Amino acid sequence: MATAPQRPPEGLGKTAKNAPEIAPKPALKAATRIDLSTLMGIGIALTGIIGGLVLERGRIQDIAQTTAAMIVLGGTFGAVLVTTPLAVVLRAFRGFFERTGSPAAITETLIQYAMKARKNGIVSLESEAAGIPDPFLRKALNLAVDGTDLHELRKMMEIDINLSEQAAEAEAKVWEAAGGYAPTIGIIGAVLGLIQVMKHLEDIKEVGHGIAVAFVATVYGVGSANIFFLPAANKLRARMRDATLLKDMVLEGVVGIVEGLNPTLIRLKLESYDQQRPKDGSAKKAKSGKADPEGKADKPKPVAAGTRAKP
User: Fold this and answer.
1) How many CA atoms lie within 13 A of 234 on its CB side?
2) Angle at CA 165, nearest 5°, toward 258 and 85?
3) Are the CB atoms for 69 and 220 separated by under 8 Å?
């Protein structure tokens, strides 16, 4: 009596016949962390100034004046609020945090998208596009999947880049304005201190002490402007340039995917952007074989018609 052939478990035959497709890794979301270089710079500056004061046989109490700090900081931020909308001022405090986006990781993600789009069509990226955490890349890829004209796609994304630059420049001007007001407010504090000194000219010792205290406000104004406010404005502009460069890189990658360029050509183009940024450990790791499990796919081997390449 012939027995019916046993049916293999479901899914086993598919594994043997069809090579599993590795879905592109989602684009890494830029992590936000406290800017350690800013904190370290402020600490070094204060250490140098206070250390010099101590070496000159001065005392920290000589410059620790609460009233002077109130006059300078209160007057400076009040003037900033007069010239700048409150929403922009609140956004400017994001300068204390930095976004640690990795160009190498984004490059690898775009290459994986390019490989899948070239193999299965750009419409196959629709499922991945919805889950991308980076809003700029998500918007660009969704426009590409929807069949937006390449010229219009580039124009729309460049508008986003320009608006981001304007917003970052507005935030930088908050600290730049504070750096301009602080020294002047410090002079006002010194004059107010001298007015109080003039009331007690009968005691020459008190006059000398009062004059010394009065000039502390000037120190606070000039010091805060040149140690904190103006450097913070320059730091925000530097980050704006880095963010713009990263968005330009993403835009060129998406444009290459739409044009159907070879993933190797797209990689070469994106690496040109990465060379303009300082190298870190993540970039070196991404260039190694471990960080790119599909690195061999840049040079695919020819396969016969009707068959699929092995993973």
Assistant:
1) 9
2) 140
3) yes
236-259 in b/e form (b: 16+ CB < 10 A) is bbebbebbeebbebbbbbbbbbbe
| Residue closest to 157 by CA, chosen among 124, 125, 130, 135 | 135
Is the model's pLDDT at 38 over the cut of 80? yes
Distances (CA, A) of 62 to 35, 67, 165: 31, 13, 43
The amino acid at residue 58 is G
| pLDDT at 8 > cutoff 90 | no
- Round the average pLDDT of the chain to a whole number and report it: 79
**pLDDT at 250 (0 to 100):** 92
- The residue type found at 157 is M
Least Cα distance to 248 among 272, 265, 282, 268 occurs for 272
Please, are residues 65 and 186 in contact by the beta-carbon 8 Å criterion? Answer: no
Rg (CA), the chain: 30
The domain spans of the chain are: 69-88+103-277
pTM of the model: 0.71
Specify the residue for token string 């009065």: 214
pLDDT band with cut points at 50, 70 and 90 for residue 233:
very high
**Distance, CA of 14 to chain centre:** 44
User: What does the alpha-carbon distance between residue 70 and residue 79 come to, in Å, rounded to a whole number?
Assistant: 14
